[in-house]
């Protein structure tokens, strides 16, 4: 279930990025920190 939440958060952040041109990390990092540990989020989003 964690993967489903992760994919949904990334999808929402990607849609916001597409609509506004910025904001992927502003949305993805705080929401993903509710589901995953922070030491996994940073390498995942920086790759």
Report on the structure:
- The protein is mostly helical and 47 residues long.
- It has one domain (2-46).
- It is 79% helix and 0% strand.
- It contains three helices and no strands.
- It has helices at 2-20, 24-32, 38-46.
- α1 (2-20) packs antiparallel against α2 (24-32).
- The longest helix has 19 residues, at 2-20.
- It is globular, with a radius of gyration of 10 Å.
- The N and C termini lie far apart (23 Å).
At a glance:
This protein is mainly α and 47 residues long. The protein is 79% helix and 0% strand.
Number of helices: 3
Low-confidence stretches are none
Q: How many strands, which pairing sense, and closed or not: the largest β-sheet?
A: none
Tell me what portion of residues adopts beta-strand conformation. Answer: under 5%
Q: What's the number of structural domains?
A: 1
What integer is the average pLDDT? 95
By DSSP, the count of extended strands is 0
The rounded distance between the terminal residues' Cα atoms is 23 Å
Q: Overall 3D geometry?
A: globular
Q: Percent of residues in helical segments?
A: over 70%
Protein name: Sulfite exporter TauE/SafE family protein
Organism: Paenibacillus antibioticophila
Keywords: Membrane, Transmembrane, Transmembrane helix
Transmembrane segments: 6-36
């Amino acid at each position: 279930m964690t993967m489903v939440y992760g994919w949904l958060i990334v999808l929402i952040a990607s849609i916001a990025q597409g609509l506004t041109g910025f904001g992927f990390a502003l949305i993805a990092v705080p929401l993903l920190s509710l589901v995953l540990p922070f030491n996994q989020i940073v390498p995942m989003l920086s790759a």
